[in-house]
């Protein structure tokens, strides 16, 4: 009987300790927006940044503006390339994002031939 009480007490103490310890990865897992952006273009190294919102975090150069844009617009659509622009030299710029946006899995990719249009805040890095 005494041994059973000790085991129950030990299990209870361990359960309480586990609930009291803040889980370092829990914030990232609970975060609704967690994205990785990549930009690849000739003559430059590939650039990759991360962006997390609620709480704001990551290596994106303007986390606050990018998270505000996503909170207001909630979309990662890239603008179309201007069909009236004719390139003398093909200079492809590829943009890619993967992750979760507002709790949904997302992936987007676009390659621009020579002129990248004005991009929304999340894509400016």
TrEMBL record:
Start and end residues of each Subtilisin inhibitor domain: 41-113
- What compartments host this protein? Secreted
Q: Name one GO cellular component term.
A: extracellular region
Q: Which SUPFAM superfamilies match?
A: Subtilisin inhibitor
Against InterPro entries, the record matches this protein to:
Subtilisin_inhibitor, Subtilisin_inhibitor-like_sf
The protein's GO terms of the molecular function aspect are:
serine-type endopeptidase inhibitor activity
* UniProt keyword annotations, A-Z: Disulfide bond, Protease inhibitor, Secreted, Serine protease inhibitor, Signal
Q: Where is the signal peptide?
A: 1-28
Q: Name one Pfam family in it.
A: SSI
Q: Which family does it belong to?
A: Belongs to the protease inhibitor I16 (SSI) family.
What is the protein named?
A: Subtilase-type protease inhibitor
Q: Which organism is it from?
A: Nocardia aurantia
Q: Its encoding gene is what?
A: sti
